[in-house]
Amino acid sequence: MSGVRAQLPLLLGVAPFGMAYGAYAIESGLSAGLAQAMSAIVFGGASQFIGVQLIASGVPGAMLVLATLLVNLRHLLYSASLAPHVDHLSARWRWLLAYLLTDEAYATSMQRYRRDDASPHKHWFFFGAGFALWVTWQLTTSLGIFLGAALPDSWSLDFALPLTFLALLMPVLTSRPALAASVVAGLVAAVGFDWPYGIALVLAIGAGLAAGVALDRALGGGAEERAFDVEVS
To answer: Is residue 206 within 8 Å of residue 70, measured between CB atoms?
Structure first.
């Protein structure tokens, strides 16, 4: 229950995104079943929004998989950070926790793992945090689907995607590499807006990641980021 309680403040921010996704999926032409299945199987807000956009654009399946992979590369870092704390668990536990791993679950669970109390049950905190997010995401997706289906076609919900990503983007622009990545990705996406098969989105993600990594290395990594944090605070 402690993991669930730790997630409660974050759930207030997750709920609107789940509703926006459900409504956007219906507006984009997905069936209610497919939209809900994506939330249950993928369980990743950014990936789902991008996936819906690419499906609606009729891009090839390989392009859809590649875009989703690029968006979720950060989970490799999350997994590497959590690995020492969960390597003693059974394979079933590790697979379950990997499925429930999200940005919010990682943030709260790492705070718990860093407490030096030698508790052998910290993975239950991780599970509680992830499960609370999963349930909230499924319920709010269903609500968004219902609202999206109930609205007339003349009420366009296209605004849901850019507004959601702006809300996700702004809090993480705390360093020069992050700013560089967002600017480069935005420019590539704008230049390639009319390119076929949604390739501009995939290229924008790759170009943004490359720009951010390159600038981070050029500026010495963490030292520069800390300096920028001081400047903007």
So the answer is: yes
